[in-house]
Amino acid sequence: MTENALRRSDVELFDAADPLAPFRDRFVVADPAVVYLDGNSLGRLPRTTADRLAVVLRDEWGGALVEGWERWIDLPTRVGDLLGAAVLGAAPGQVLVCDSTTVNLYKLVDAALHLLADRRTVVAHRGDFPTDRYVLDGLAGRAGVAIRWVDAVDDVVGALDRDVALVVLSHVDYRTGKRADLAGITAAAHAVGALVLWDLSHAAGAISVGLDTHGVDLAVGCTYKYLNAGPGAPAYLYVSTALQPHLRSPIQGWFGAADQFTMGPAYEPAADIRRFLTGTPNVLGLYAVEEGASLVAEAGVGPIQAKAAALTDLAVVLADAWLEPLGFTVLSPRDARARGAHVSLCHPEAARISVALRRLAKVVPDFRPPDVVRLGFSPLTTRFVDVWDGIDRLRTLVASGAHNGVDLSGQRVR
Ligand SMILES: *Cc1c(COP(=O)(O)O)cnc(C)c1O
After folding, report:
1. Which phi and psi (to 5°) does residue 344 adopt?
2. What is the value of pTM for the model shown?
3. Is 27 a catalytic residue?
């Protein structure tokens, strides 16, 4: 990228040449003056979702009432297959949309620890997302299994041996944006007979994943970030076809039973992926996932990944030119192939700066303690001029010192 990228008029040309540019109009943009750089926490609302849910409420719930279950009952597998094909690189029958990421993680970690109960160690990253660390810590404690924490994902391969049952990692690190070597780590774990569970929350809808191609065993992730399915929309889980018969869910709910409506005396797990369902699915949320995933399917993961690389490249160039002199450092990898779709900046006043950006500059980033400002670039909705404007407003704010006047006491900093 050249110095020309520093001029807004040049950046406008990137938008003019962007094949994904028309997708922004498919989403609700309530206030065009706001530069929204937090699609990696909560993606925007697709227009089709608002329309679809209105029809579902009126005709399916309001009209069909309980007969609606005829079409609702298969949503977790139907939308799972769509997500598998469009986003995750998974053949049908391996993905379910259900529950939360936290609950899906619990189910799959517990199942894996039971399958490989003769092994007494799990490997995980000390910097991983809190819920992943907490769930793993709780389950390892109950199972009497040790957690071998690594300080960097690059240390995972060196931490593997034949006592390791499971490796749990995020594909894209929520703090730094660093992408783990999914293919290499999966292969190394398999070489010692261990399983791998990937959390794809910050990867799906931002970069290409390829679960089947890389022989991944297990995966989970949420749908409200780059998949734009809305607050609290159901998450997904992936279990490879080969593993399904060998894993049992710790939650023996009726939706996971072989013959749900026989209502028999004892639980027998379904033969297929449905054994990882729990109870009644979130129907409205599932329709929202279907709409979000359909937009990703239409755009294609290849173009999405290419745009994520270009947006984050631009952010890094601008951060180096404008923000580095103001005391920021770029925490994310400099090679686009080594990161997801967000760029993290370290600054000692990151908390005040994040609040001031929202209040004074109409830019929405987020803050990750102790000193990180995250800028998320959602490829379907973020324009190149949004990157330029967001970072331009950030430099103007910090150069003016206006953030120093922000009082953080008694407020939740996001
Ligand atoms: C966002 C995110 C989650 C969210 O978990 P919930 O159960 O939906 O709250 C989990 N793990 C990672 C890595 C995330 O980025």
Report:
1. -105, 140
2. 0.97
3. no
